[in-house]
Amino acid sequence: MRSKLFVPGSRPELFAKAVAGEADGISIDLEDAVAEERKAEARNHVRDWLATAPAHDKLIVVRTNALDTPHFEPDLAAVVRPGLHVINLPKPQTVDEVRAACDALAKAERANGVTQPVRLLLNIETPRALREAAALACADPRVMGLQVGLGDLFESLAIHRREMSAVHNVLFAVRMAAGEAGVEAYDGAYANVKDQDGYQEEARFARRLGFTGKSCIHPSQVALANEAFRPSDEEIAHAVRVVEAAREAEAKGIGAYLVEGRMIDKPFVMRARAVVAGARRLGLLPQA
Questions:
Q1: Burial status of residue 6 (CB atoms within 10 A of its CB: 0-12, 13-18, 19 or more)
Q2: Which phi and psi angles does 260 have, rounded to 5°?
Q3: From CA 87, how far away is CA 61, in angstroms rounded?
Q4: Dihedral over Cα of 141, 54, 76, 112: its sign
Q5: What's the CA gap between 263 and 166, in Å, rounded?
Q6: How far apart, in Å, do the first and last CA atoms of the chain sit?
Q7: Rounded distance, CA 110 to CA 141, Å?
Q8: To the nearest 10°, the Cα dihedral for 273, 263, 2, 204?
Q9: Are the C-beta atoms of 218 and 22 separated by less than 8 Å?
Q10: Is the Cα torsion angle 152, 154, 155, 156 positive or negative in sign?
Q11: How are beta strands 213-216 and 184-187 bridged, if at all?
């Protein structure tokens, strides 16, 4: 999921338009984008849309309200339906909270006849969550990824959003936590829609750190994310050569070898295979 476009849950007229766009995933927001007095209305919009949406190939994410709000369980009861893939949980702080959210998710699945387990994407947007990120990611098999939330994290601490040393430190810490848990890491939103250069800079940095994708709060950011998280033609060509060389080396019982003057062993082969697989998913290489 290179790009994930946020859509307010109170704007159902935008759901189909978002699905028809170029974003890999659609994140319907029931939290910050919806005023308190419209929370029930928004969750009902999402429930009704999931029941009637035509077939599509998008990953559907719903960001619920936080676990400690009165809206969390009603959100799950409304939106955990066939067609939902991921619940995005804001502001988890402890392992117990993640497990409680998973228990509530399982209860909603049983109540609504959902047989394909819905996964969980955790927002890392508080100091404690950043410190506990690896434990949160390892808390339950439903957790599929960690997502950086710099707005909530930085504003509460009076850290400037463009202080790049702080951005880099947070992204690196979250990537290491996701790596420990064996889940994906996703970069968060970039609020200045007009600053496309800033968005691209941050997205490209996140990709260099091994992040999978980045949130988009406006359709104009989708193409920027898709491009930033697309493997380059040079990367794809090199990965193909590494995979081919690995096949030959394995047949000969060789553990380490050179490709284009670079030493290659198991970690490099694993990354090359991941690049090739990703390129095939994007239609940049023929299927094997």
A1: buried
A2: 55, 40
A3: 6
A4: negative
A5: 33
A6: 21
A7: 18
A8: -170
A9: no
A10: positive
A11: parallel
Both structure tokens of 269: 């082969």
In the numeric block, the tokens 């170029």 are attached to: 22
Q: Name the DSSP class of 189.
A: -
Structural domains in the chain, CATH included, are: 3-228 (3.20.20.60), 233-281 (no CATH)
Q: How would you class 88 by CB atoms within 10 Å of its CB: exposed for 0-12, middle for 13-18, buried for 19 or more?
A: buried
CA distance 279 to 274: 9
Query: What's the one-letter identity of residue 10?
Result: S
SS3 208: helix
Rounded to whole angstroms, the Cα distance separating 222 from 103 reads 33
Closest CA to 90 of 127, 69, 108, 63: 63
Read off the tokens for 114.
């959902």
| Tokens (6 digits) for 211 | 């992040």
pTM > 0.85: yes
Q: Whole-angstrom Cα distance, residue 275 to residue 38?
A: 43
Q: What is the pLDDT along the chain (288 residues), one digit of tens a residue?
A: 999 999 999 999 999 999 999 999 999 999 999 999 999 999 999 999 999 999 899 999 999 999 999 999 999 999 999 999 999 999 999 999 999 999 999 999 999 999 999 999 999 999 999 999 999 999 999 999 999 999 999 999 999 999 999 999 999 999 999 999 999 999 999 999 999 999 999 999 999 999 999 999 999 999 999 999 999 999 999 999 999 999 999 999 998 889 999 999 999 999 999 999 999 988 999 987
Question: 266-281 and 233-252 are packed helices; what angle lies between their axes, rounded to 10 degrees?
Answer: 130
**Count of residues in the chain:** 288
